[in-house]
Amino acid sequence: MAMPTDNARVHSDESIRLLERSLGTTRGRITASDASAVTGLPLEQVRDALDVLMNRYTCRLQVTESGEVLFDFGATLRRRGEKTLRERMQAMGALMWKAFTFGFKIWITIMLVVYFVLFLVLLLVLLFGGKDSKKSIKLDWVGDLLADIFWISSRNMVIVDAMDGGGYRHRAYRQKQRRGADAEPKKRLVQSVYDFVFGPPRPTYDPLADEKEVAAWLRAQRGLLTMTELVALAGWTYDEASERMASYLTRFKGDATITDDGVLTGDFHRMLARGDGDIEVGKVELFWDEYEAPYEMTGNSGGRNAVIIGMNAFNLLFSAVIVFSSGFRAELGTVLGEVGVSGGVLLTLLGVIPVLFSLLFFTVPLLRLLPTRRREAQRRRRNERRRVLRHVFARRGAATSLAEYAADLRADQAHALGDDALRRILEDLLPRYGGRSDLAEDGTVLYIFDRIAHETEAAARVRAERDGSFALGDVIFDSGGALPAP
Q: What residues form DSSP beta bridges with 69?
């Protein structure tokens, strides 16, 4: 076997490709030593290549009792951010739904409101005016209605704080005034109609919000991050937090370190470098302070929904009479014949089309009913889980009884949570967040989250030993000109 020399080191790019190919044949968790044995690369090069591949592919990190780091790239390498087939299908469905809603909104504006007024005028003409009526109809308001088609979007919404029926504060959209940046005190009619059919819009979030939040946390917490703190920031399970930690270690140039008591921490001291500019960093908002907005059917008042239902029912009834009553159609044709409207055009434009639209107008909300109720029930459960997790962390994962957690929850100004529901949530949290149950001397069940307690204490100890500063030093190069003489 040929002996390697110092000049025989593999180039870094080639070592990355070599390790990448080798990972495709491995299964399960590996150490840096495993990767070195498979590829023949020096440990130093393997570690550098693993850093690159962690940034490129989804990876989980785990720490053994001996302090060794395990890298788990899964059964197959999957690029970070790469969508699965299911996610691509969901994205395609969302795009098709968006196109449908936009087209249907235009149809709604024309069919519901305009046809309602048109049918109402025709009815009044038939009842009181007769064929000799010369009344003029003003249509200036149609322009305002059509403007709402393009005005109502996330760009023209204001995010406000709201509270649902369970006492959970959340963010919500409010329609912006056409002139000014403030929210409308009351929804305009067309927005109410759109919300009746499709449901009120839900606030969208910055796709990099998690990354901004972690960066802000690092700058405020002396550049240190643990997986328990990732759980507190976003509610991920420890498996999910492990993947995120691997991603942030590469994104923010951090170093994975192991404390003396075996806790994996991310050392992100580079994120502490600060210039003298006035910048605004992201906001740190813990998982239990980020309650989800409710899934509502319409978000309208009962009176507004009654008006909308009445308008569409009137359109449906009037157009159905035109379709099914030849006598009424003949009488209406006499009135409209003076402006050149033939019987076939009358039947199509004032009969068949509005009948189909009005039926569809009622059908879409009915189709949304069950999915919306299911999503709302799931949202309530997630918000309840947030409340419980808040108190688990507040007690630092220490042994706590059901009665003690119930007392903590009663102090919240939110919807009451029964003992059975609380017990189910705690039992669901135990395997997700490294917990276990035990019995006190009196037989009371205690819920203990050892990992939260252990990592919280370790992080506090390590953080207390750090000064949390990063010395930039003197400027040694300035692209704008020469530096002052020393």
A: 63
SS (H, E, C) the chain: CCCCCHHHCCCHHHHHHHHHHHHCCCCCEECHHHHHHHHCCCHHHHHHHHHHHHHHECCEEEECCCCCEEEECCCCCCECCCCCHHHHHHHHHHHHHHHHHHHHHHHHHHHHHHHHHHHHHHHHHHHHHCCCCCCCCCCHHHHHHHHHHHHCCHHHEEEEEEECCCCCEEEEEEEECCCCCCECCCCCHHHHHHHHHHCCCCCCCCCCHHHHHHHHHHHHCCCEEEHHHHHHHHCCCHHHHHHHHHHHHHHCCCEEEECCCCCEEEECHHHHCCCCCCCCCCCCCCHHHCCCCCCCCCCCCHHHHHHHHHHHHHHHHHHHHHHHCHHHHHHHHHHHHHHCCCHHHHHHHHHHHHHHHHHHHHHHHHHHHHHHHHHHHHHHHHHHHHHHHHHHHHCCCCCEEHHHHHHHHHCCCCCCCCHHHHHHHHHHHHHHCCCEEEECCCCCEEEECHHHHHHHHHHHHHHHCCCCCCCCCCCCCCCCCCCCCC
The residue length of the chain stands at 486
- Cα(99)–Cα(198) distance, rounded to whole angstroms? 13
Of 428 and 129, the one with more pLDDT? 428
Query: To the nearest 10°, the Cα dihedral for 317, 322, 323, 325?
Result: 100
174-213 per-position pLDDT tens digit: 666 655 556 666 777 778 888 898 888 887 777 778 888 8
Q: Is the Cβ–Cβ distance between 52 and 16 less than 8 Å?
A: yes
How far apart are the C-alpha atoms of 440 and 30, rounded to whole Å? 40
Q: What is d(CA 289, CA 172) in angstroms, rounded to the nearest whole number?
A: 15
Cβ atoms 50, 32 nearer than 8 A: yes
- How much is the CA Rg of the chain, to the nearest whole Å? 32
The two structure tokens encoding residue 48: 């550098």
CA distance 202 to 292: 10
Strand order across the 69-72 sheet: 29-30, 69-72, 60-63
Q: Are 462 and 455 in contact (CB under 8 A)?
A: no
pTM of the model: 0.69
- Supply angle C-alpha 359, 364, 369, rounded to 5: 125
Structure tokens at 2: 């040929």
| Strand partners for 267 | 224, 255
Q: How far apart are the first and last CA of the chain?
A: 57
Q: How far apart are CA 463 and CA 465, in angstroms?
A: 5
Look-up of token digits 């010369």: 134
> Tokens for 155?
């760009």
- Answer positive or negative: Cα dihedral of 408, 411, 414, 415: positive
pLDDT tens string 4-59: 444 444 457 777 777 777 776 676 677 877 777 777 777 777 777 887 787 777 78
